[in-house]
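Q: Structure for this?
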Amino acid sequence: MRHLLKRPFSLPKADGLAASARVEVRPRPDPLGWLAEELGVVDRRSVWQWVLSLFIYPPDRATRIKTSSRNTFLVLLVRTIGLLFSISVRIVLAGVRVLRWFWQRLLSFLPSVNYESVGHRLEGWLETSFFQKPWLLWLLVLCSIFFFWLVVTTPFTWFGQLLFIVCLWGAALFVRRIPGNLPALILITLSVLASCRYGWWRLTQTIPLDAGWETFLAIGLLLAETYTWLVLLLGYVQNAWPLKRQTLSLPADTSLWPTVDIFIPTYNEPLKVLEPTVLAAKGVDWPSDKINIYILDDGRRDEFRRFAKEAGVDYITRPDNAHAKAGNLNHALKLTRGEYVAIFDCDHLPTSSFLQLTMGWFFKDKRCAMLQTPHHFFSPDTFERNLGTFRRVPNEGALFYGLVQDGNDFWNATFFCGSCAVLRRGPLEEVGGVAVETVTEDAHTALKLHRLGYTTAYINIPLAAGLATESLSSHIGQRIRWARGMAQIFRIDNPFQGKGLSFFQRICYSNAMLHFFYGIPRLIFLTAPLTYLYFEVHIISAAAAMLALYVLPHMLQANLANAHIQGPHRHSFWAEVYESVLAWYIILPTAVAVFNPKAGKFNVTAKGGLIENSFFDWAISKPYIVLATLNIVGLSIGLGRLFFWNTFETGTVLLNLSWTIYNLLILGAAIGVATEAKQVRVSHRVSANLLVALHFKDGSTKMCRTEDYSMTGLGLMLDQELKLPVKERVWVSLWHDEVEFAFPARVIASHGHKLGIQFDNLSIEQEANFVQCTFARPDAWSNWSDEQGVDRPLQSLKEIAIFGFKGYRSLWRNLGKGLARQHQSLRGWLGRPTI
Amino acid sequence: MFKIAIVSAAGGVGRSTLTASLATLLAQRKIAVLALDFDPQNLLSTLLGSDEISLGGLLPDFLTKKEFGKSALINSNEVACLPFGRANEASLATFEQHLRTESEWLKKYIAQIDYPPGAFLIMDTPRLPSLYARQAMVAADLVLAVLAPDTRSLALVPAVEAALARCAPGRQPIYVMNGLDSTRALQSDLLAQFRSALQMRLSPYPIHRDEAVPRAVANYANLQSLSPDSLVAHDLNGLLNWLLAGPASSLDGRAQV
């Protein structure tokens, strides 16, 4: 205390001050001091600090901040907890490894089966005439219903239920190895059986009947479970038989080909985002007198008008911005006359084969009103960037475009997704143009077309590619819009009411809309075990062991079935992460839309931005942090219950504890997503292996291959090491359809085998050629997901667990940083000179 | 034996260089090849690595009535080259007189060469119209016309067609562009014009102008081993693959044997 008081008065002596200003004061050699500084020991007298620094702290001096003892304590706390986390990760991983070893030993005792041939035999059986008789079919259906009812409703003892699990699980493990669609249906059946049995048991046996808030909470959980059960079942119907439509060729006589208008709506995107799209659209392979390209600029910008003129495309504006994108498209529909309309968002570059590969279906199917292709993204989305899973784990959109749309297509219920699609003008005008009643105008337009009996098609080949949303907040903004729009359609044009839809179309649309109501159920699942851990409330009135025996097959079978159907498009457990991130944010918009579908306005998804520094998005991650904190407290209380207070019901405690731990992992991954990784490149690089020729000033040349390309430059890989001066002028040649295009460029980096070059003021024509050589190549995106691993549920769980731990580590670090910063600013404030 | 005549209507488009490069590339792929210099300039052997202008060759052999093909030279890349040989005005006049009377002289002369099946013969000729080029076109299975990326070559395309039609009715030459500088917009535009005019008869692999070619000649080195990753090496490989898969496949000597 005296020390603190004295400090303001003990000014350094004048001559000492001058001396220190002139020369650097060199301390006497002090080995102990040097060591202390190297290791980061602040207080040399403290043995504890020495121990910590020697054995526990990572030896990185750069990140160390010299702080006071109070801060040391905080940092120490944070780091110790981080250490505990990493130790527990190690333990968990070791456990997993041991389990896997045992499992493999067990499997090696089983006889091997040729699953391929089993698959073929199964398909063969179905083809036999025995199965073609309709009466037999009905008999089978009746029998199945009877047995289904029997299996679902018969009460078992715990042993019976255990046998049931083992049988079901064994069957599923065998079936899931057989390739093909029929095994998928078997797995679906097994899953439906397990889930319905769980549902029946849950409904009839586990609801606490004594009135009070216990029952209220129990019914809440039950409703959430019913919701997931319903979505699961609807999803099975929707994805029962993905169509996997192939492309059709066009008639050889090009005079029969129809006229096509390409619409590129834009509102506030920068020109550099729109430019490549227009240039790519100009290169779309179609008779030049039968294609027109229109920029629909709702921003009414002169810059864009000039660009359109320069690029030789049409430019349309309108006096107001009524109904946003839908209104913009409708306005352009009135001014144009092409028989077909292809729509591309202003950041979706079409490949040159887009129309050649899509238009065939309109010739074959005269009722076909809309053909959709996938939205492919060549930049990582928020999840991929912040978790580092780009091109390794299927992203959030992969499930929809890889499976759901193919499933929808089977039931003639392909949704229009607003971009990368072709529409027939006649039907579109018949439904009054693009729908304006909701904020998801695309899905609503498709619904209207389906109501009039038109067909739609989906081709699962990426024929256009664009930028993913660049930050978590904009990702959430986009999903909020989708959720709100779907809820609006659910209210004002409910697919289960009204005329014109087939039963299965209704199911597909309902599932798409119900899907966006996952907000509240997800939150319930993330907090349900806490009611017991905090208040000892039993919201499920059953013995823990019995609950486990019923709920396990339900979850396990659903997981196995989904891993089989969705395998290449969504890895197990990732849906939980994707949903948990959004859950909190879509509750309000969906609720508002349901109660008042007219409220709210259209928000545009920002794209093409950059994040200058890594940062932790505190604002966005607030809900996850609150939930995680609640769960951590619950976990601690639960440990107390396990060892001291509730030793009489260990099973219940354990069940709730494991549920909480699972929730914590998912929340951790969600927090990890909120750590925004740095994104410095203005234009995204696409990795590709293209042939390139370099022309040097002295007339010599060199062939090499690209590592990646962007709108502004190339990354090249050379066979031999080559040292080139930076800024050296070179020309680079790329090929498109055997035609060579040379572009002026400068060297910006040269290291060993690698060379980075940047283009030198390309003309519009050169840029158009460059787009044709790169982004718009017909096969540009065809092998994109080859590097993705197959879905292995345990592997996936492990990965998410690691992301969960990393999320908490990042949270702790940022918490430490935040505290240090706050402390500093407090000090700065206190240290201000006062009068 | 598969026989290719390299011709052009415009001068200085690089016929000899292309002949030498193609021959070297064939030899490198272990395909037996004879490069025949049917041009009184007698330069092909120099491009293939000979130190001095060859004295012996086709013309002296003809005059001394020696057995044909005995004066062929073989370089370190296993390319056999039969030079034209040193000539003076009088001997040339005699020779040309003989060629005028016997329009299939070269064809007969080549038939006497004992060469392994599947081998290639590549003939370098003076620019059209020429007595020598005529003989070579009559003898050849495939006429490869060399173009330069300029309007001169574009204007002379009909002349090449007419010359071939006169000596081998019903046959059409295959074209290849040589000496392209793709960094010049004008040359790329001209290439596009050639493409639309000649369609499939123009090789999709234009041979680029590249320092690697004169460098290899100056160093008596094989282009493919001196600058394997140069653009021109890539072009030549592409051209040869295209010839072997397309124009040269149906007429392949190997198929005839």
